[in-house]
Amino acid sequence: MQSQTITQNNHANPQVWTVCNNCKDYDQDTVQFAGQISDSKDPFSSVFGEGFIRVNQEKITFSQQGFVTAFIKILEQLTYSTLYNDDACYLKLSKFGKETFVKMSPDALDQVDKLLKNIIFKQDFSDSYEVISFVGNGSFSQVTLAKNKRDSKNYAVKSIQKNRVVQNEQSKKELMNEINLLRRINHEKVVKSYEFFQTESQYKLVLHYYEGGSLEQKLEKSKGFTLFQICDMMRQILQGFSYLHQNNIMHRDLKPDNILFFDKESFDVVISDMGLSQDVNENFVFKKCGTPGYVAPEILNSITGTDYGVKSDIFSCGCLFYRLVMGQPLFEGKSHVEVLEENRKCKIDLSSTEFKKLPQQIQKVIENMLQINPEKRISAQEALDSFFYRLNAEQQQYFCKNLQKAKLHQRKNTGTQIEHTKLNSQNPHKQRQSVQIHNLGMLNNSLNGINTPKGSCSSMSSNNSLPNTPTSNATNKDKQDVRKSQYCKQTSLEVTEQQQKKHIQSKEEQFKSQRKNSPTKQRFSKEVSPDTKKISKIKLLDHHTLLDSPINTGAKKIISDGNKITFPKKSLQEDQGKHNTAK
């Protein structure tokens, strides 16, 4: 009798739903929510009458009297909206331009929303949020501050243009990898995500808004931190990594930019930016990636690009810990290429007098974090169990000076120009940018494939600022050219013949006094002939480019074309600027 009754009601055959005759409900133990189905909201005309909605990872089912009446397979094309009205509440499901409505109670709709937002995209962003202000801008994303219309709280919204993603299968994999990991993560020391929307032109990620800014911003302004503050931050960071690693997730891009503060007054921090993160048990979306100066040696020296694990994050923790207590980076250089080469060599010296002044437990934990062999390297939980953060009153007040800030200030005052890389002129705010490596290949005598993928623009913090990075002492005209070229959002960068001639001329004058057979002359010959003369265009690596123009300081990009290494425009300007300074 039950099946006959259901069959008689199935003649309506609603949109989106697949009608199921005489299908026994085997999922009765899961949570169910009372509701009715209709193809329209105004007027609402129930197709099957009263029933129960269930949600799982594969499908949404509508059941009656112990039998499944209809179901919807959860595919990529399925999206949903939540409609809260005074008279009734509705779950709106959309697929291939067709819509269906499920009438539910407010509490039931809230519960279904919590389940669905971890599986599929929502549609109703403008109905749910009001954009308040602009926060930051990257090459392929924009961050805004938005207020939720239901709870009146502020959230950070990262928007990605769909045409940037849809046209490239790899880009789509990268975005979905980040979203899927964010959906899985639920820990107070890792960036919190709330909802994921899909509009006609954008994907929108709603994340917690961290008002305190990034650790990099604090380092740029601060003279240093007490040992108590540093250990407290590192304890929280390791708690976040312990959680991630227990869930087989490695972050692969720990650095000061990606540590955010809850507010400006406290030292409560979270790990942010899951753009390069990876589940070690799944196919790697990125293989070799990270940020120069913080990358684990097993990533740089990896043969397959996948033969490393979660302990690569611990090496990055050691680099960060060292940076904070010593006031300067572990690996230094005049450019990101030099920093990367020092990072690859991984010659670590912890014998300095200043380092030996630190408490023994801190020296030991940093040394164990920086073990080159990952098998000998300490884990996040083991680092926490060492209780390195337990300090006596005198140790707590030990002040670690920020020597890096002093160095930058000194260079600037003595004529070594440190330029702040600027964003698009339309952006009144400053956004901290970073250069990251991607698909490095074997770093032997050459450095291949330095790239700038999406980075800290996805760090949801306020008042973001740009880094101090080395540049040339260029003339005013050159500086104007650089400003015009920054963030031009093109897929190629013109290198004019005039700039090539200037570069070659400066090199010739520089080495004029050298003997013809000198090693320096030989290096010059290799550099300018024949590759430099052949440069007419430099193609940027599209999807991962955070700084759209390699002219930007600190964003030196090397593009590998077979066995030929091409140096882009910034390299030419650097050498020209140095020559002008010498004059």
TrEMBL record:
Annotated ranges, domain Protein kinase: 129-388
Stored Gene3D superfamilies: Phosphorylase Kinase, domain 1 (3.30.200.20), Transferase(Phosphotransferase) domain 1 (1.10.510.10)
The keyword Lipid metabolism is annotated on this UniProt entry: no
Biased composition range(s): Polar residues: 443-455, 487-498
Regions of compositional bias (Low complexity) in chain numbering: 456-475
Bias kind Basic and acidic residues: ranges: 571-583
Region (Disordered): 443-532, 560-583
SUPFAM superfamilies, per database record: Protein kinase-like (PK-like)
Keyword field: ATP-binding, Kinase, Nucleotide-binding, Serine/threonine-protein kinase, Transferase
Top-rank taxon, per record: Eukaryota
Binding residue positions for ATP: 158
Any one GO molecular function term: ATP binding
A single cellular component GO annotation: nucleus
Keyword Chaperone: no
Database matches in Pfam families: Pkinase (PF00069)
Name of this chain's protein: Serine/Threonine kinase domain protein
Lineage of origin: Eukaryota, Sar, Alveolata, Ciliophora, Intramacronucleata
